[in-house]
Amino acid sequence: MSAVLSTPKRSRTRAADLYLGFLMVVLLGYTLAGRGFAYIGMPPLFIGEILLLTGLLVMLRTGGIVATLSSLPGTLLAILIVWVLARTIPFLGLYSFDALRDSVIVMYGLFAFIIVVVLYDEPERLRRLVLAYGSFAVLFVSIMPIVYPGYQLLQSQIPIWPRYNVPLISLRPGEVGVHFAGIALFVLLGFRRLGPVQLALLVVGIAMVAAHSRGGTLAIVVPLCIALAMVPRSRQLAPLLMIAAAIVTIAALLNVEIEVSSRKLSVDQIATNLMSIAGSAETAGLDGTKQWRIMWWDKIVNYTVHGDYFWNGKGFGINLADDDGFQVIDEEEAQVLRSPHNAHMTILARSGVPGFLLWVAMLGSWVAFMVRAFLLARRHGDRAWARLFVFLLCYWLSIVINASFDVALEGPMLGIWFWVLFGTGIAAGLIHRTEIEGRTGGRAPP
């Protein structure tokens, strides 16, 4: 891996190296403590905003900003940010902090520009990032199958932030599922080997998410299937499947049921969730929440695509759940909703059809960019690079899937991860192309 990802030395600054370390620490905090970690700091500067501001300073000091716009996804992101600013600034006087909070679904895209500059300035940092993720994978898979059910069982006893009434640890199943998906991808693509015990813990962690969240289940299954289709050879696939089959068989034979919050961790519950995704689960709670989402999304489409909010949307700052008439208490967060359980519908409702089209074009262009990078790497025999592009693509896709069924990109816990992966993908593609041009003495083939 190190030989494949080695690249010519470039100028490096201590500030960029320190920032990369700071970024990794913050991302780790979001994965292990969730929303509880996000409240470190003082409003309006919480840890995510501090990370963003310091990153922008590092980006300006490091230089190379032109590289952020040298790809179509980067250019479209810049245009989308301008559009969102235009739909946020007019509402600052009316909604103040709420307008800024709602806009981060796109404004956190500045992290993508930061990571492109930091990694492209010194490509060795990309290798360090990959190695650091390997260490994170071992840590996460070792402790999260204990931390997550412990959080669900002991929520009332966890200390809270006194000013915000938020537990110091607050984990959502979709967020946990995304990272289990990322680790499974990392392992199956050959970047890190796990022992039998760690593989068993990975299976148990995935099972917990599958029993708790339909969106989280899709966010795991779909990216793994795509990755295995793109890179079918995996030395750890057979051991993982054998361990999974053994655990499921034993759990079914012993009729194991573990009460975790409002759901039971059991084979039957997992099967029920899978059935509810495909159609009707004949369960009032599951079908009811699905119908509630569909009704809200239909209303958003009606007042934007077919209504008065076609061009501008309702803007950033207004509570969409209140204004649209779909307000409920979010059981996971124990607070009122602000946005629909779908990031794409949030963009449509707040920024109108033009903003939505920019959003879709940006997502599609990034996918095309990554697939093209994968094909280029495979054509040149750069297997590690090819696997890296598949990992980044499918990990990012896992977040997109989860954000299609939950309020995910609207907060820093997955929002920052989403944009960091977005920027890392662009940087990796640019670095790899530069490496090929260096080897061939000219332009890389299209």
Question: Can you tell me about this structure?
Answer:
The relative contact order is 0.14. The protein is mainly alpha-helical and 446 residues long. The chain has a two-stranded antiparallel ribbon. It contains 19 helices and eight strands. α10 runs antiparallel to α18 (383-403) and α17 packs parallel to α19 (412-440). A hairpin with a 2-residue loop joins β5 and β6 (263-265). The longest helix has 37 residues, at 343-379. It comes from Azospirillum argentinense.
What's this, in brief?
This protein has 446 residues and is mainly α. It has helices at 2-5, 14-33, 35-38, 47-62, 72-86, 92-95, 97-107, 110-121, 124-153, 173-188, 196-212, 214-230, 237-253, 267-278, 284-304, 320-324, 343-379, 383-403, 412-440, and strands spanning 41-42, 45-46, 160-161, 166-167, 258-260, 263-265, 329-330, 335-336.
State the total count of DSSP E strands: 8
Whole-number mean pLDDT = 86
Largest sheet: 2 strands, antiparallel
* End-to-end C-alpha gap: 24 Å
Strand content: under 5%
Overall 3D shape: globular
Task: Determine the number of helices (DSSP H or I, runs of at least 4 residues).
Answer: 19
Order of helices and strands: HHHEEHHHHHHEEHHHHEEHHHEEHHH
Number of domains: 1
Strand order of the largest sheet: 1-2
Low-confidence parts, pLDDT < 50 over ≥5 residues?
Answer: 1-11
State the assembly state of the protein chains. Answer: single chain
State Rg.
22 Å
Tag the structure with descriptive keywords.
mainly alpha; 446 residues; 4% strand; single chain; disordered N terminus
